[in-house]
Amino acid sequence: MWDFHRRRLTTILILLPLVLISVIACKFSFSSPLASGKKSSVSSFFDSGKYQSEKPLNLVEGVDDFHAQNPASSPNSVKKIEARLVKVRQAIKEAVPNRNMTSLHEDPDYVPRGPMYRNANAFHRSYLEMEKLFKIYVYKEGDRPLFHNGICKSIYSTEGRLISELEKGTLYKTEDPDEALVYFLPFSVVMLVEYLHIPGAREIHAIGNTVADYIKVISQKHRFWNRSQGADHFMASCHDWAPRTTSYVPNLFNNAIRVLCNANTSEGFNPSKDVSLPEINLLTGEITGLVGGPSPSKRPILAFFAGRLHGHIRYLLLEQWKEKDSDVQVYESLPKGVSYQTMLRRSRFCLCPSGYEVASPRVVEAIYSECIPVLISDGYIPPLSDVLNWKTFSVQVDVKDIANIKTILMSISQRQYLRMHRRIKQVQRHFVMNPSPKRFDFFHMMIHSIWLRRLNVRIED
Ligand SMILES: *[C@@H]1O[C@H](CO)[C@@H](O)[C@H](O)[C@H]1NC(C)=O
Ligand SMILES: *[C@@H]1O[C@H](CO)[C@@H](O)[C@H](O)[C@H]1NC(C)=O
Ligand SMILES: *[C@@H]1O[C@H](CO)[C@@H](O)[C@H](O)[C@H]1NC(C)=O
Q1: Closest of 312, 308, 310 to residue 400, by C-alpha
Q2: Fewer CB within 10 Å, N side or C side of the chain?
Q3: Which residue, by CA, sits nearest to atom 9 of ligand 1?
Q4: How far apart are CA 276 and CA 51, in angstroms?
Q5: Which domains are present in the chain?
Q6: Does the pLDDT at position 317 exceed 90?
Q7: Residue 248 Cα, ligand 2 centroid: separation in angstroms?
Q8: Sorting pLDDT into bands at 50, 70 and 90, what band is 58?
Q9: Which of the two residues, 21 and 105, has the higher pLDDT score?
């Protein structure tokens, strides 16, 4: 019914490619007073979306063939914005051919370098442009606790942090919707589930319909949703049901930028327009004490996993390895007196199989503990895949190779392992959820992922 050709939107080129619920959910301690400063075709190192008519571009290959005409002189704000984006795309495009592994741009905080970046120079250029230009408008409609609110503890902490950081609005936020490059839909799927779902029910109509009603209100009161059919709008959720929830509004599912932990391509996750959100299980809401680990020589265990039998991949893993091998230590529950944190830090590789959904908090736990993550999943797009080359600091094991995990890991040379260990320490910063966002950390990198996807669409009035 909704016809893609009617969208006044052209594809452009580009780029780089439960929990206790408290109603005052995000009680984060903001310890630092220095809280600084946040379609056409989309970036993609993956498949391009079905509806993209133009060749998708990415950070590695560069930007190609984009609309070079400059619609500047109009007083119309969206035209001005688009005119600036033409220049931004050009700047990123020019940064691509430098294949030096070190960014050539100056930066007082951090200069991306190393093979972990698909293209360090293009990424850095894009990041700097984002800091100069990106503006987010947060819709004010909707009441707490379902809207403008999220939980900053527990397995859903990344959803809560994104919502609360955007609400606080120290970074990237604008109060003038005409100045915005993207529009945030501030509903929390975790909160909708908590308040509207009848325990045990399989259907989620109350949740999906609430979101549909919300989009209806937004599209009637403001002109921005209809203008792009959602393509410059985003939502964020770490709940397993977020993909289903968004399916109640076809344009939300198919056009909008969905920032999801459940980045399962078999559930409609489209890496060229959606953003993979890491899952970070923060028991206390704080990261204090979680980041850092011993050197490689103090890691006697080859591989480690502890977790319940959730889903078929874990079933295969536990069946094959549970308490059977002293090198590959796999537990359904840890022996008494053994600490999970300690195990992460004594291991060289940490197994991160999907559970009931594709994402696993173990990926970030491993990165924080400086243990090399071993991703075991089907159809999972890891976070920041458009910027980072996961193969250089993680291991991916196909589900069918679970029986060969030990052979696969043993075949990684000591030199290669040491390289990966060094790299994991370097990319760690991109996953750290600082109490107050710092440049290049989790929050800024998620915003950068959204920025990249916005660069891949052109909006017309
Ligand atoms: C790569 O960048 C480094 C650091 O800026 C510089 O010293 C080196 O000469 C560059 N190499 C090439 C091939 O451009
Ligand atoms: C957007 O489109 C919807 C459905 O066609 C319509 O009901 C609504 O009034 C439109 N909004 C605006 C601001 O024109
Ligand atoms: C990914 O989605 C497909 C389709 O819904 C589902 O069958 C599969 O179990 C999902 N993967 C995980 C790990 O949940």
Answers
A1: 312
A2: N
A3: 100
A4: 20
A5: 4-284+435-456 (no CATH), 296-431 (3.40.50.2000)
A6: yes
A7: 17
A8: low
A9: 105
Ligand nearest to the CA of 226: 2
Predicted pLDDT at 26? 58
Question: Is residue 127 predicted with pLDDT exceeding 60?
Answer: yes
Q: Which ligand is nearest to the CA of 260?
A: 3
Lowest mean pLDDT among 46-55, 284-293, 305-314: 46-55
Tokens of 67: 């609309």
Contact 374, 409 (CB under 8 A): yes
**Best probe residue, ligand 2, of 219, 251, 252 (max atoms within 8 Å of C-beta):** 219
Q: Is 268 in the pocket of ligand 3 (CB under 6 A)?
A: no
Residue nearest to atom 14 of ligand 3 (CA): 357
Please state, in angstroms and rounded to a whole number, the distance separating the CA atoms of residues 192 and 206. 9
Cβ 52 under 6 angstroms from ligand 2: no
CA of 355 to the centre of ligand 3 (A): 10
Give 37's pLDDT tier (boundaries 50, 70, 90): very low
Binding site membership of 131 for ligand 3 (Cβ less than 6 Å): no
Cβ within 8 Å of residue 375, ≥6 positions away: 352, 363, 382, 390, 394, 395, 396, 397
| SS3 label, residue 346 | helix
pTM listed for this prediction: 0.86
Strands (E), 95-230: 136-138, 182-184
The span from the CA of 355 to the CA of 352, in Å, is 9
Ligand 3 centroid – CA 339 distance (Å):
31
Give the pLDDT band (50/70/90) at residue 29: very low
Cis omega (within 30 of 0) on the bond before 145? yes
